[in-house]
From TrEMBL:
It is a multi-pass membrane protein. Keywords: Cell membrane, Membrane, Transmembrane, Transmembrane helix, Transport. Pfam families: MFS_1 (PF07690). It comes from Marinicrinis lubricantis. NCBIfam families: efflux_EmrB. Belongs to the major facilitator superfamily. EmrB family. It comes from the Bacteria. Signal peptide: none annotated. Residues 15-487 form the Major facilitator superfamily (MFS) profile domain. This is DHA2 family efflux MFS transporter permease subunit.
Amino acid sequence: MSTEVQHKAKSPYGIIAILLAGAFVSLLNSTLLNVALPSMMEDLDVGASTIQWLATGYMLVNGILIPTTAFLIQKYSVRHLFIAAMLLFTIGTIASSMAHTFPILLLGRMIQASGSAIMMPLLMNVLLVSFPVEKRGGAMGILGLVMIFAPAVGPTLSGWIVEHYHWRTLFYMIIPIALLVLIFAFFKLKDKKDKNNITIDAVSLILSSLGFGGILYGFSSAGDKGWDSPHVYLSLIIGFISLALFIYRQFKMKTPMLDFRVYKYSMFSLASGIAILLNMALFSAMILMPIYLQQLRGISPMDSGLLMLPGAVIMGIMSPITGKLFDKYGAKALALTGLSITVATTYFFSMLSFDTSYPTLLLMYSVRMFGMSMVMMPVMTNGLNQLPARMNPHGTAMNSTISQVAGAIGSALLVTVMSTRAKAHGEQLMQQELGKLTEQPTPDMLEQLQNQVTGQATLNGINDAFLVAVFIAAGALLLAFFIKRPKPAEQQQGHGLQQLKEETN
């Protein structure tokens, strides 16, 4: 990042606070609608497959735009980028709050996503250039608090609001916060940037959009449409071919849009591998637990959200602490401890029954979140620490992109495992029940038997999916044994603060 700066003898905490506030509202918004989707379906008179586009469309826009952030960070100042991102996010939120038809609501959500896609890579890059390597853990711990706590608290907050108010309140409460952040950013962000004549490569942009967009859409659609759907396999084929061409083109370009040479650095590559596996395992509880709690146990959405709230609070509290521990002890000890806890608790969730008590579920979910809080940010920061400063924008964009892709792959894989195994268990249980009959079953008896075995078959399918998540998390644990504290590829002068200027009125 080639920003020329005159530092005013203090760290840019004001800038970072504004960026954190923007990141918090955008991340909170990403999961805020999940619990409200049934109410929206009824109010807007659309089906489940249509309403899911509010989540899928948001994720697709993120997946398409995040790879461009490395270019944007190098081209424009923090001030211009952040104000543009918050303006898009605010316009999208206002449009969504006023929408009385589904197309307008979807458009508003996608405008929101275009703003939020820029925020996280921008914030991570600012933190990297604002703090020396030995102090980045603490800074990244604060970022981890935002990354983890905001989306985790979303469903609980959403459940309470939808239970007491109209779903539009979810947007109404975001608007004043977004406007306040936008006003503060306009008056307080004053960094300047040398003129940079780099231009974005249109072919790279098209290939990136088709590649990441196709892969995200294909995997996110697989759980609903099935792997044999043309929507799924054609999207994946187009996505993987476009991604291969995109990567090939980036290696041939002098100034790539997204530089895959970051993977020449061993600790960054290792961090990416662990992050991919951990994101896939993380989605096991985020997707499977609501199905188990609400559909099989009859627990309300509000109580389901409350069950997950202590885990979110623990992760929020632990993130800054984990950051300080990372600065002192490094990533390896934290990752091994956290992943061991994650593997053990995920194995517990592979043995769920209809009698598992609510307090036990709450405790084990909270312990699992405690384990995960010790892994993601330390491992990610450890990998970024090895990169030269000029590659920081590419490293942060790459991390954000693989998180999106890994989440989509993980959710598709685990939903597929759950549905296919539930079907197999259902057929097996049905045969067992039919074998116990002493008379020819009537259609009514067959229907009654089918209803009896469906719940147990679904539970068995969920347990099998969690078991797959155990092996995924175990893979991340094995990789963690190879973590080392890296030496920066190039020494950054002072605190790197020559790259960022703060002028407050």
